[in-house]
Structure to design on (910 residues):
C-alpha cells in the first residue's frame, strides 16, 4: 500500500475534479489559483519516481560501515514498511476474520488512493479544496465562485449585491460554467467607476493586500514596452529561436524547399553533410555581425545525414548575464489603492448572498457549502452567507507562534457561549478576556472548544452542524476567532476543536441536506442516510467529492485558524450502520461484520495520514464508545492513526458509583480496571472524570451530586462537605494520574460548579439562567479550595512531569480496606476510599529505599480537609521488608476518604 507521503509525491494527470474551464488554455483562472495558494503556508514534499512499487518490495540494500549494536537506530513505523495486520501481531491477536478484513480494507485503501489520484494531482491537493471552492478574490479585478452541485441544472448567485437577481450572475453554458462532475463556476466582475475605462491589458493584475500604487505613474503601456525594448534588447536579440533546430531547418529549406531542386534531375548528386555545410558557411562569410547567439552544424562523423546543433558558449553566457526589465513589468501591476480608485467590488465585504439552483424538483436557494461566515435568521429556518473579505488594514494579523507540542496534555474543555457569568450568549472576545487567563492560571496547557462550527439551533450545543467551514456567528466573526486562537497561543495553550464529521444537520434550508435538490449529494439515500435516533444525516464517505469536502475541511481549520488538533466526536455513529446502538460483547467479529462501514474507516485513515503528513505537530483524539481495534495504532500497521483515544467508560463508572452505589460498596478492583482499561493502549488514553456530558447532556455535575446545587458554604451542610469535597478531589486525582498522557476537565468543574447547564429552549421558556458559568463562586471558600487543589494537581504534572513519564505500576489494590496504591516515576500515590476507616500505619510496598515526602494531600486544611497528618508524618522512611512484591515498604498514615502523593526525595543504600 502506498503511504500518504508516497501518494502525495506521485505525479498524476491534471485533476479533473476542477471544471474543464480551469484547465483550458486561458490562464486567468490559473493565475487566480496561484494567487490564492501563494497566501497559504505550503509544505514541500520530496520527489519520488513515478513507478509504483509493490508493498512488499524493499529498497536495494546499501553498503554501509558496520556500527556497534549500541548505535543501531530504531526504525520508525513508516520505515518498517506496510503491514496491514501489524498491530494484531504486536498485541498477539489471532482472529482470522478480522485479519482478513484488515487486508481487504488495505486493498480498498489502495484502490481509493488510486481513484483520488486520477482526479487530483496529489492527496495534498485533494485536501485543500478550499483554495478553489467557495468565494475567492481573483487578481484580475474579479471574484470567482465555485460550488459542487451535481444534481442542479442551473446555478446563479443571488444577494444584496445584485438585488437578489437569479439571472445577473449565473454560470455559463456547457463547460465554460460547469464540468461533468457537477462543479459550477461563476465570475463576478468588479464594476468600473463612473468615468473610468477598462484596462487595456488582458493580464492586468492588482495586489489586494499590499497598499502600493505601481502603475499609477501616468506612463502608458506602450511607453513601458518601448523602454523595456530599448534598455533590454540589443540588435539581433529582438526575438527568440523557437527551436534549436531552426538553423538546420533553414539549411534544408534552401536545399529542398520551394527554391531548391524540384526534380531528381535538378537534384543531381547530393554531397555529404560536411561538404554542404562548408559551402553554406562560405556563402555567408560576409554577412553582417550579430549579437544573436551563433550556432554551428556538425555531423560528428556519422554516415547518415543527421546534424548536431552546437551553440556558441560565449554568446549564450553573454545572453544569460542580462537582467530582465522586471522593474518595467511591475509597472503593469497595480496596488489596492489604484483598484479602489478605478473599480467597485463586485461583492463588497459583508455582502449577504446565497446560491440559487434550478433542479428537477424546482428552484431552490442554499447557503454555499464552502461559505466561511454564515448568519442564521432569528427563527433558524433560513440563513445567509456573508462574504468575509475585510480590507488589509482591518484583517487580523497573527502575532504568536503555535506552542511546541507537549509530551502530556492537560485539556480544559469549554463552550464559548456559556462561558460568561451573565445570562446571555458570550462572545469570543468575552472568552479571551475572562476565560483564557483563568485557564492559564489553573495550569492547563490546552483548550478544547465545542460548538464553534456553525450550527442551526443554539440548544443543540453545536453538534448539528450546518456550515462546516464557518465559525458560529453567535460568538463573533472569523477574525474574532483568529484572535482567540492567537491569544491562547500567546499564553502557551494549544487549541483543539471538537469536530463533528460523523453526521450533519438534517435541515435543508440552512445545511447540506438535499443541497442540490437531490438526495444523493453529500449523504446516503434511504434509511442509511439518516441517524436512527438523532435525526441527523449520515455522510457518504465512499464518494470522492464528499471526501474532498471533509478532508479539506480538516485542513481548512488548521491552515486558516491555526488550530492544533481535533477531537473527533462520536466515531461509533459513523463506523457502524447501526450508529453504535447495539450490544457489544468485545468479540472481534463485531468489528468486521456487515454492520461496519468500511468507507468511514478509510476516511478516518486518510484524515490522519493527511493531517499528520501536512502538519506533523497536529494532535487527533478519537471518541469511540466501542473502542474500535487499532484506533491509535499507525495506519501503516493496520491502525486508524489517532494520537489519543478518550476512555468514555471512566466517566460513566464514576457517575454510576456516585448516584447508585453506597460509598462502602465501591469496588477498588473495578475502579482500577476501568481507569486503566486495556494496558496495551494505556499510553494513548485520554481520561476524564467528567466532561461536558455531565454538565450539558441533561445530567448533573459531580459537585451537584456530592455537595448539592446550593451556592456558598453557608447553604451547604457539613455532612455534604465532609463527604463531597474529599471525594471530588480524590476522583480527579486518581483519574488524572493513573492513566495515559492526557487528561481533560470541563469548564467550571475544576472548582465544583454546582449547577448543571441548560441551554435556552421552549421547555424552559428560552431562559439563559442555567446557560452560564458562575465564576463568582471562586470567591467562596468551598469552591476556592476545590480550585486550589485542582491547580496544585496540574502543577504536580507541570513541575514533576507525572503524565509524560512512564505508566503507573499498580501494585496494591485492596477491596476490603478500600485502598489503592501505585507508583509512577519517583512518585507514590495512595488512596483510601473507605468512608469511615482510617489507618495509622498502612503498609505500602516501594521499590526504592529512601525518604518519601508528601507533595500533595487531599486532607490538608487549605483544601477544606481535616488536617490529620502532622508535620512529622509528611516524611516517611522505608523499611527493609518486602511488601506488594516490592523490596521495601512504607508505613503510612491514611485518614478515611483521603489521598496522598509521596515523592522520593532522598535515596538510601540498602
Amino acid at each position: 500500500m502506498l503511504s500518504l507521503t508516497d501518494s502525495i509525491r506521485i505525479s498524476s494527470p491534471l485533476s479533473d475534479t476542477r471544471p474543464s474551464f480551469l484547465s483550458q488554455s486561458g490562464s486567468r483562472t490559473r493565475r487566480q489559483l496561484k494567487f490564492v495558494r501563494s497566501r497559504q503556508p505550503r509544505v514541500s514534499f520530496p520527489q519520488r519516481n513515478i513507478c509504483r512499487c509493490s508493498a512488499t518490495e524493499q529498497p536495494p540494500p546499501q553498503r554501509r560501515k558496520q556500527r556497534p549494536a549500541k548505535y543501531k537506530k530504531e526504525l520508525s513505523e513508516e520505515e518498517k514498511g506496510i503491514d496491514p495486520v501489524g498491530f494484531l501481531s504486536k498485541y498477539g491477536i489471532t482472529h482470522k476474520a478480522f485479519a482478513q478484513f484488515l487486508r481487504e480494507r488495505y486493498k480498498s485503501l489502495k484502490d481509493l488512493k488510486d481513484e483520488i489520484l486520477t482526479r487530483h494531482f496529489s492527496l495534498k491537493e485533494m485536501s485543500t479544496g478550499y483554495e478553489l471552492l467557495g468565494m475567492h478574490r481573483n487578481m484580475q479585478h474579479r471574484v470567482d465562485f465555485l460550488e459542487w452541485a451535481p444534481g442542479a441544472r442551473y446555478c446563479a448567485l443571488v444577494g444584496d449585491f445584485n438585488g437578489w437577481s437569479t439571472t445577473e450572475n449565473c454560470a455559463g453554458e456547457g463547460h465554460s460554467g460547469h464540468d461533468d462532475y457537477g462543479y459550477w463556476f461563476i465570475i463576478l466582475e468588479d464594476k468600473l467607476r463612473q468615468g473610468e475605462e477598462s484596462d487595456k491589458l488582458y493580464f492586468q493584475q492588482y495586489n489586494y493586500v499590499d497598499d502600493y500604487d505601481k502603475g499609477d505613474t501616468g506612463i502608458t503601456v506602450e511607453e513601458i514596452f518601448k523602454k523595456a525594448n530599448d534598455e533590454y534588447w540589443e540588435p539581433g536579440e529582438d526575438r527568440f529561436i523557437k527551436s534549436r533546430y531552426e538553423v538546420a531547418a533553414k539549411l534544408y529549406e534552401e536545399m529542398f524547399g520551394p527554391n531548391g531542386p524540384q526534380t531528381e534531375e535538378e537534384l543531381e548528386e547530393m554531397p555529404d553533410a560536411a561538404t554542404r555545410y562548408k559551402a553554406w558557411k562560405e556563402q555567408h562569410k560576409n554577412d553582417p555581425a550579430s549579437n544573436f547567439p551563433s550556432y554551428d552544424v556538425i555531423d560528428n562523423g556519422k554516415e547518415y545525414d543527421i546534424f548536431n546543433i552546437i551553440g556558441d558558449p560565449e554568446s549564450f553566457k553573454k545572453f544569460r548575464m542580462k537582467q530582465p526589465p522586471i522593474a518595467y513589468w511591475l509597472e503593469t501591476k497595480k496596488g489596492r489603492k489604484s483598484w479602489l480608485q478605478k473599480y467597485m467590488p463586485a461583492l463588497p465585504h459583508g455582502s449577504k448572498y446565497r446560491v440559487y439552483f434550478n433542479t428537477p424538483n424546482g428552484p431552490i436557494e442554499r447557503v454555499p457549502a464552502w461559505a466561511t461566515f454564515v448568519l442564521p435568521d432569528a427563527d433558524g429556518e433560513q440563513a445567509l452567507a456573508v462574504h468575509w473579505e475585510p480590507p488589509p488594514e482591518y484583517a487580523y494579523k497573527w502575532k504568536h507562534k503555535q506552542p511546541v507540542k507537549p509530551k502530556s496534555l492537560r485539556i480544559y474543555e469549554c463552550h464559548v457561549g456559556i462561558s460568561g457569568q451573565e445570562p446571555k450568549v458570550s462572545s469570543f472576545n468575552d472568552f479571551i478576556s475572562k476565560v483564557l487567563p483563568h485557564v492559564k492560571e489553573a495550569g492547563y496547557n490546552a483548550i478544547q472548544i465545542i460548538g464553534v462550527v456553525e450550527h442551526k439551533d443554539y440548544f443543540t450545543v453545536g453538534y448539528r452542524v450546518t456550515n462546516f467551514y464557518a465559525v458560529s456567528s453567535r460568538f463573533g466573526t472569523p477574525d474574532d476567532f483568529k484572535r482567540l486562537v492567537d491569544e491562547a497561543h500567546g499564553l502557551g495553550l494549544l487549541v483543539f476543536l471538537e469536530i463533528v464529521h460523523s453526521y450533519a444537520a438534517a435541515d435543508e434550508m440552512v445545511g447540506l441536506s438535499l443541497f442540490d435538490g437531490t438526495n444523493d449529494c453529500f449523504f446516503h439515500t434511504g434509511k442509511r442516510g439518516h441517524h436512527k435516533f438523532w435525526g441527523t444525516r449520515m455522510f457518504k464517505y465512499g464518494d470522492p467529492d464528499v471526501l474532498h469536502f471533509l478532508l479539506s475541511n480538516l485542513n481548512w481549520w488548521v491552515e486558516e485558524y491555526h488550530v492544533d488538533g481535533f477531537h473527533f466526536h462520536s466515531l461509533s455513529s459513523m463506523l457502524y450502520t447501526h450508529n453504535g446502538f447495539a450490544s457489544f460483547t468485545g468479540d472481534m467479529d463485531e468489528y468486521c461484520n456487515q454492520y461496519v462501514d468500511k468507507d468511514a474507516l478509510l476516511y478516518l485513515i486518510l484524515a490522519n495520514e493527511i493531517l499528520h503528513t501536512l502538519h506533523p505537530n497536529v494532535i487527533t483524539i478519537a471518541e469511540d464508545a466501542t473502542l474500535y481495534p487499532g484506533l491509535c495504532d499507525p495506519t501503516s500497521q493496520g491502525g486508524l492513526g489517532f494520537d489519543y483515544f478518550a476512555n468514555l467508560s471512566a466517566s460513566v463508572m464514576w457517575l454510576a458509583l456516585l448516584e447508585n452505589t453506597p460509598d462502602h460498596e465501591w469496588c477498588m478492583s473495578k475502579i482500577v480496571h476501568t481507569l486503566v482499561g486495556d494496558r496495551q493502549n494505556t499510553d494513548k488514553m485520554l481520561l476524564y472524570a467528567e466532561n461536558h456530558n455531565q454538565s450539558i447532556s441533561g445530567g448533573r455535575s459531580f459537585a451537584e451530586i456530592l455537595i448539592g446545587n446550593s451556592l456558598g458554604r453557608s447553604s451547604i451542610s457539613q455532612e455534604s462537605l465532609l463527604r463531597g469535597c474529599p471525594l471530588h478531589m480524590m476522583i480527579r486525582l486518581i483519574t488524572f494520574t493513573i492513566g495515559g498522557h492526557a487528561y481533560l476537565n470541563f469548564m467550571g468543574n475544576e472548582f465544583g460548579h454546582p449547577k448543571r447547564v441548560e441551554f435556552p429552549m421552549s421547555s424552559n421558556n428560552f431562559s439563559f439562567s442555567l446557560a452560564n458559568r458562575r465564576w463568582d463562586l471562586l470567591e467562596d471558600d468551598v469552591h476556592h479550595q476545590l480550585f486550589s487543589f485542582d491547580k496544585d494537581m496540574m502543577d504536580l504534572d507541570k513541575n514533576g512531569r507525572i503524565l509524560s513519564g512512564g505508566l503507573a505500576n499498580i501494585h496494591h489494590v485492596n477491596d476490603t480496606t478500600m485502598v489503592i496504591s501505585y507508583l509512577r516515576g519517583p512518585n507514590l500515590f495512595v488512596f483510601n476510599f473507605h468512608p469511615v476507616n482510617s489507618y495509622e500505619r498502612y503498609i505500602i510496598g516501594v521499590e526504592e529505599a529512601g525518604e518519601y515526602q508528601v507533595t500533595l494531600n487531599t486532607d490538608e486544611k487549605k483544601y477544606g480537609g481535616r488536617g490529620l497528618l502532622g508535620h512529622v508524618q509528611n516524611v516517611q522512611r522505608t523499611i527493609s521488608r518486602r511488601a506488594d512484591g516490592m523490596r521495601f515498604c512504607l508505613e503510612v498514615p491514611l485518614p478515611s476518604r483521603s489521598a496522598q502523593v509521596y515523592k522520593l526525595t532522598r535515596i538510601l543504600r540498602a
